[in-house]
Amino acid sequence: MGGNKARALEFLLADLRPGDQVVTVGSAGSTHALAVAVYAKRLGARVSVGRWQQEMNSTATRVARQLEESTERAPIFRSPIGAYVWAWRRRRRGARWIPAGGSTPLGILGHVNAGLELVEQIDAGQLPPPARVVVPLGTGGTAAGLALAFRIAQRDIEVVGARVVPRIVGRKRRVLNLAHRTARLIEHLTGESVPRVRRRDITIAHGTYGGAYGRETEAAKTAAARLQATAAISLDPTYSAKAFALALDLASRGPTLFWLTFDSRILRAP
């Protein structure tokens, strides 16, 4: 179980102890929730997830099934509000809280590391400098971390977020706020000054949203089929297929890097 979520969990679960109770929230087929369940259980913790209904697709259905097998039984709520209230009650009883998507300054440190690793690869001549990096945009942690990494490394690489969630969640202001809060955390921990992400460093593509979370789009289906046929790489319909479709469209404007956040091994898991 990999993908982008493991980056955040490396920090968010770092001091977890056997017997701890962990609670998080996500949609019915949340890969974030599944990643929390996989790694927290491996560290000896008990995991419960507050989930809400979503428009299901084949991948989400598979993830939902694995979640039910990996976590303590809990209802699936009609909206995020019910799931958050349910999770809040468990937090009051001492459960470790992991926010949706792992998108906190501490978790975003993992994505900052990923961006700095990309810069190292560029400097080593392993790939040409991209004009932009295209990522799916859900809770915004990956986009915020990459943008901050590029500012730290003084690289003019645009981060383009392919929005796959309602606009109230997938907002530039929210991503910028996450990046600024992460910069402040790094300054607090290191005593070093950290540059701030600028508005022009991040672009949100709103046209990739299918009208409902989890709803497939024709452009994403076509893009996913193309990548599967040419490289045998699987994409998920909720996030990565939509971002890849956008990356294909933007490639004519210069070197474009598609940031794959999905771990297709879960599709082959028993």
Give a written overview of the molecule:
- The protein is α/β, with parallel strands linked by helices and 270 residues long.
- It has two domains: 5-100, Rossmann fold (3-Layer(aba) Sandwich), CATH 3.40.50.1100; 105-268, 3-Layer(aba) Sandwich (Rossmann fold).
- Helices cover 46% and strands 14% of the residues.
- It has ten helices and eight strands.
- Strands 3-2-1-4 form a four-stranded parallel β-sheet, sandwiched between helices. A four-stranded parallel β-sheet has the order 7-6-5-8, with helices on both faces.
- Strand 6, helix 7 and strand 7 (202-205) form a beta-alpha-beta unit.
- The longest helix has 19 residues, at 105-123.
- The radius of gyration is 18 Å and the shape is globular.
- The protein starts with a helix and ends with a helix.
- The model has no long low-confidence stretch (mean pLDDT 96).
